[in-house]
Amino acid sequence: MPRVHALDPPGSTGNLLATLPTPSRRATQAALPMTADEMRQRGWDAVDVVFVTGDAYIDHPSFAMAILGRVLEAAGYRVGIVSQPDWHSADDWTRFGRPRLFFAISAGNMDSMINHYTANRKVRNDDAYTAGGRIGSR
After folding, report:
1. In this structure, are strands 102-106 and 49-53 parallel, antiparallel, or unpaired?
2. pLDDT higher at 129 or 67
3. Using alpha carbons only, what angle is made at residue 132 by residues 129 and 133, rounded to the nearest 5 degrees?
4. What is the pLDDT of residue 39?
């Protein structure tokens, strides 16, 4: 009998890897929702997990939030993404409402000190993981 965790989606067999999308199916999937409107377009009224990342959200396997979000989505969870939240306001944190399970928070692909300073301790002029290279978004 497969071992199924209490937080597994209903009907789960406990084999998470078997639920991963094949490359042909993955290519046609829409990006994970980043707004409440995108969530509702999927027919969802709430999300199970909200990933919060300091990076711009890029749906590519070199970004951890994309990988983790897609694995959870393939397992039947509803996943939302909050990318580079405005740290002056709580609005981004309430975008999807309260998630059923948890918020998952990451600084992003690059440590904030490395992102802000060069090896020579000079302030960087751009941010490689922000749209337009704009600094100050994390």
Report:
1. parallel
2. 67
3. 50
4. 96
